[in-house]
Design goal:
single chain, two-stranded antiparallel sheet, 2 helices, 97 residues, Alpha-Beta Plaits, four-stranded antiparallel β-sheet, alpha+beta
């Protein structure tokens, strides 16, 4: 088990400071990140928290999964590695224009 956690169901107003305070009750927080839309800069409702050890990450999952933050139910679990992108981005691969 890693120490990086996925946090879904975040209120759109949630800040990294608020996430750090929430998770710090369950161990040492190494980093927090709220994912934002690259065009609007607004939260997308999820983020990541990195705890200093796997046991602290497990404690945070046990304590915070399915709890509420500002009326929204949190999903907290181990973050999965990001899948490599194979589409090349842009307009969709090998089309000629």
């Amino acid at each position: 088990m890693g120490s990086k956690l996925y946090v879904g169901g975040l209120p759109y107003s949630a800040t990294e400071t608020q996430m750090e305070a929430l998770f710090a009750e369950h161990g040492t927080v190494e980093s927090t990140r709220v994912i934002t839309d690259k065009f609007t800069g607004k939260s997308r409702g999820f983020g990541f928290v990195e705890m200093s050890s796997p046991s602290e990450a497990q404690a945070a999952i046990a304590a915070l999964h399915s709890t509420e933050m500002d009326g929204r139910t949190l999903t907290v679990n181990e973050a999965k590695p990001m899948a490599p992108r194979t589409d090349g981005g842009g307009f969709g691969g090998s089309r000629s224009y």
